[in-house]
Design a protein that fits this description.
- There is one protein chain.
- This protein has helices spanning 11-22, 34-39, 87-99, 115-123, 152-159, and strands at residues 4-8, 46-53, 56-64, 72-78, 105-111, 127-137, 140-148.
- It is α+β, with helices and mostly antiparallel strands.
- Strands 1-2-3-4-5-7-6 form a seven-stranded mixed beta sheet, sandwiched between helices.
Length: 160
Amino acid sequence: MNVRIFLTSEAPMLDECAALMARSDPWKTLNRTFQDCRDSLQGVFREVYVAQQNRDIIGLFVLQMQGTFAGYLQSICIAPEMREMGVGTQMIRYAEEYVFKTSPNFFLCVSGFNKRALKLYQSLGYEEVGVLKNFVANGMDEILMRKTMSSWNDFKTQSN
């Protein structure tokens, strides 16, 4: 599948991304509005990447590359009609390649009810680190997951 992935900060494109999120799960189930989704795409430490096929946005992901959890995948969204077609795997691999240049760890959260996404992350080598109870909404947990290449000490030694 011919998918182009690129960094964006263009307001109209971010609006389109927020609309995609707001009409998709898990954001619908978590009662996240368009404005909630739009707000989640902004901030100095957030990098928003778009997956585009032809001129259509078919997915997006948001990385946070600063702080203790540098290399945190804040969100990933694939258009419902494009799911189960390898787009999510392609986007995650793209993000991993970028993150693992500067950090030995890649973190993400997945909603406990999102079994398909959990299965995908496990198949890509992610392991559960912990559960964040009632994190986004009461009665709904987020599972914190990590994929690691090495400890920070070993990574720093190899990077020098």
